[in-house]
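Why should sequence recovery work at all? Because a backbone constrains its sequence more than one might expect. Tight turns favour small or flexible residues, buried strands favour hydrophobic ones, and helices have their own preferences. The token representation captures these environments compactly. In the example below, the structure is given first.
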């Protein structure tokens, strides 16, 4: 139990502090431990805030574990008239079930009055200062958890069903102690604007994303003056109802070796397509059996309406947002539906949602720059960085490595892998395989985040050398949804980003006009993999299930089909990257073309998906926009990443004169997979 309740995404840039977990890490197993926790709170060390403050705070905050008094030194939560019903986050602040007739009461009873159990922001030196002044929480932000009920169907008043959206907010001003408000009117208040964030997917969890990046986002874009709020879109993660079409994660996994087979290793692509298609038919049937007409209510048009409800609940006249990847699709749809509500909205890693109306569009529109990213980036920057920083640049047979030589070596390695998988043994999982398909999908995932490159280069180098251990370990890390190390409990799966993602993508292209027979799909598969052997397969499998969508949900609700050129209250800022493996710059430019004066584009020259390859120039423009509403005059501005892959931390090391201690590649890879789980959850788990 202990293991499954570890926060998977809890590590921020400052890993020393472990968060006392919001609901985002609650797995089925953890739920049982929550029940245990309610009965025996002392059994669960994770709930006590770790770190030096825990012990020292006891001197200042009087509280008692068994206290029936639900008043804290900060008063009682939720506050009256708070539409999100925020409580300071603890492990129990999960939205109440939909069939709970007294949901508000259930929710209120989850308030834990002990501030030492809450998730406060990092201290940045204020903790010591605070302690000396008698208050360890003074001047610290806090994570608040809440939920918002919205109509499942905005277009049908006689349908009373709701979606219950989980939200997590980082409030920069923290909380005000009882009585403090009289002396300091800004403590514990919401900020003037709230930066609403969405990481992508479809299927990425906005609440988990908030836990991971909220403090960084408010620092980056608003000098830590604006609150940050993330929500789980309908069907996702802690929002209810949660979508999963397999009763157990293990059932989903047992298909996976066969279901993601790549074109290059399919004896007969046609037969493989028949297999995958039959399996998709079975899965969508299961979605129907389990969720009935819910599949009608998950499209991006309804998600955008939910976002408007969030803005209204925030009480802000216009939306401030940082929406990434598929989140930019939500943003484009939002701007078109609610042009008068658009405030300072950044769309980073820009899609062009019009493409997603076409058959397979979500797949084929993503391919432009993945191969370049592999060639110029992963391989090219490796050679430039040299053997000290990239294993693949180590001289081979005494000869220095050239880009063309390295590319030929990798082609040979992949060619031999396509002939036959490489067997491996791992103490943790026993017998295992390095397969072509799994490796290429992982290579594709690596292109999203150049920080993963040294680890992947090390794994490929060793694999080439006949040692498959590291490669197999890296693949195992992402292979399964089911965690074989978790205790065997009869716990059904919670939400699944795979099936949810499918239903969203398919709803958005429901009325596509292209033919839909397997011959057409076979031709598309060939074309996509010709264009990009790295991303073509993964992207095809994202869209192929849509063949079976209309059979069950012919009339998805609220899908947006209008133009994207509405006159907005305020122009949006698009950021698109030259080497983005998922949202090519070309798409950002096409969107800009359509939006005209209602947008500006930052062409961000760098590697990876969205602007994670940091550029001072991009940061400066984005901050001026979010803080002041100012935009470049030019339609398009170029910005260049500050550093090169493989060399991100080099100066830092030199400066601190520490002996170059290589990072554990598996640790680097695990961190990368967490990052990936937000923007493309389906790549987080590949066969
Ligand atoms: C939400 O997402 C987090 C991070 O991916 C995961 O650990 C957690 O189990 C999810 N919670 C639910 C209720 O699905
Ligand atoms: C509206 O909701 C009612 C009640 O659920 C349902 O009977 C009706 O079919 C719905 N109308 C449409 C157009 O979906
Ligand atoms: C008032 O509260 C804000 C937000 O917590 C804090 O930044 C500020 O320092 C406080 N001012 C005083 C005078 O305590
Ligand atoms: C945000 O995080 C990035 C990468 O983790 C880091 O380089 C940057 O300095 C952080 N920015 C702020 C303002 O904290
Ligand atoms: C990205 O793809 C486009 C084709 O759509 C191409 O023109 C451009 O050169 C590519 N970018 C890079 C950096 O290779
Ligand atoms: C194979 O690689 C693993 C992981 O990098 C390493 O620990 C091990 O020592 C290597 N084995 C041999 C025989 O070199
Ligand atoms: C694949 O490419 C060929 C040649 O360009 C084209 O004729 C065909 O229509 C494409 N197939 C699909 C499904 O787009
Ligand atoms: C949007 O573009 C369409 C053509 O696609 C045009 O007819 C319409 O006038 C434009 N609307 C605005 C507000 O510019
Ligand atoms: C915002 O505007 C103020 C006043 O014009 C200016 O001093 C400040 O530098 C601007 N901030 C940014 C981030 O551009």
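From this structural description, the recovered sequence reads:
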């Amino acid at each position: 139990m202990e293991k499954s309740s570890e926060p998977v995404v809890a590590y921020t840039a400052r890993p020393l502090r472990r968060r006392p977990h919001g609901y985002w890490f609650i797995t089925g197993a953890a739920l049982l431990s929550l029940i245990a926790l309610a009965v025996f709170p002392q059994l669960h060390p994770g709930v006590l805030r770790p770190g030096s403050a825990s012990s020292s705070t006891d001197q200042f905050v009087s509280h008692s574990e068994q206290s029936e008094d639900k008043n804290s030194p900060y008063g009682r939560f939720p506050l009256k008239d708070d539409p999100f019903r925020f409580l300071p986050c603890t492990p129990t602040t999960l939205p109440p079930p939909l069939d709970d007739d007294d949901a508000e009461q259930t929710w209120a009873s989850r308030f834990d009055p002990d501030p030492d159990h809450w998730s406060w922001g990092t201290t940045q030196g204020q903790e010591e200062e605070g302690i000396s002044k008698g208050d360890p929480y003074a001047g610290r932000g806090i994570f608040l958890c809440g939920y918002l009920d919205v109509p499942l169907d905005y277009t049908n008043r006689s349908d009373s069903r709701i979606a219950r959206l989980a939200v997590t907010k980082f409030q920069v001003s923290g909380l005000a102690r009882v009585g403090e408000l009289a002396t300091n009117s800004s403590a514990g208040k919401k900020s003037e604007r709230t930066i609403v964030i969405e990481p992508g997917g479809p299927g990425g969890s906005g609440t988990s994303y908030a836990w991971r990046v909220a403090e960084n986002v408010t620092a980056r874009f608003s000098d830590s003056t604006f609150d940050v709020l993330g929500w789980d879109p309908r069907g996702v993660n802690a929002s209810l109802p949660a979508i999963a079409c397999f009763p157990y994660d293990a059932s989903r996994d047992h298909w996976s070796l066969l279901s993601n087979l790549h074109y290059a290793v399919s004896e007969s692509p046609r037969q493989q397509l028949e297999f995958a298609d039959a399996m998709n038919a079975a899965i969508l049937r299961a979605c129907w059996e389990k969720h009935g007409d819910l599949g009608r209510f998950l499209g991006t048009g309804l998600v955008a309406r939910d976002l408007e409800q969030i803005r209204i609940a925030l009480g802000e006249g216009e939306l401030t947002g940082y929406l990434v990847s598929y989140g930019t699709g939500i943003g484009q749809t939002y701007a078109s539906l609610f042009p008068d509500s658009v405030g300072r909205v950044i769309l980073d890693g820009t899609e062009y949602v019009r493409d997603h109306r076409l058959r397979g569009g979500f797949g084929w529109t993503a391919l432009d720059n993945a191969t370049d990213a592999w060639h110029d980036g992963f391989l090219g920057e490796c050679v430039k960085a040299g053997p000290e920083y990239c294993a693949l640049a180590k001289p081979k047979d005494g000869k220095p490595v050239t880009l063309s030589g390295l590319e030929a070596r990798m082609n040979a390695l992949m060619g031999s892998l396509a002939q036959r998988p490489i067997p491996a043994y791992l103490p943790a999982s026993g017998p295992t395989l390095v397969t072509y398909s799994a490796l290429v999908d992982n290579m594709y995932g690596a292109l999203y985040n150049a920080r993963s490159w040294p680890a992947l280069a090390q794994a490929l180098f060793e694999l080439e050398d006949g040692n498959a251990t590291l490669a197999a370990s890296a693949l195992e890390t992402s292979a399964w949804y089911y965690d074989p190390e978790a205790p065997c409990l009869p716990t059904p799966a919670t939400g699944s980003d795979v099936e949810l993602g499918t239903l969203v993508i398919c709803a958005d292209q429901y009325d596509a006009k292209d033919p839909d027979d397997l011959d057409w799909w076979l031709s598309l598969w060939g074309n996509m993999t010709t264009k990009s052997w790295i991303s073509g397969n993964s992207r095809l499998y994202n869209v192929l299930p849509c063949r079976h969508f209309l059979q069950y949900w012919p009339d998805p609700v609220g899908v947006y089909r209008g133009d994207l050129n509405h006159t907005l209250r305020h122009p949006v800022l698009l950021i698109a990257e030259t080497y983005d493996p998922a949202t090519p710059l070309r798409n950002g430019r096409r969107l800009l073309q359509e939006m005209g004066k209602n947008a500006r584009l930052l062409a961000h020259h760098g590697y990876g998906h969205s602007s994670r390859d940091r550029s001072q120039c991009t940061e400066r423009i984005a901050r001026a926009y979010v803080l002041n509403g100012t935009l470049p005059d030019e339609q398009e501005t170029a910005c260049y990443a500050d550093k090169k892959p493989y060399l991100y931390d080099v100066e830092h090391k030199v400066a601190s004169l520490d002996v170059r201690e290589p990072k554990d590649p598996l640790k680097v890879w695990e961190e990368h997979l967490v990052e990936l789980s937000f923007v493309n959850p389906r790549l987080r788990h590949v066969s």
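A few observations help interpret the result. The domain at 298-358+559-648 is CATH 3.40.50.1820 (Rossmann fold).
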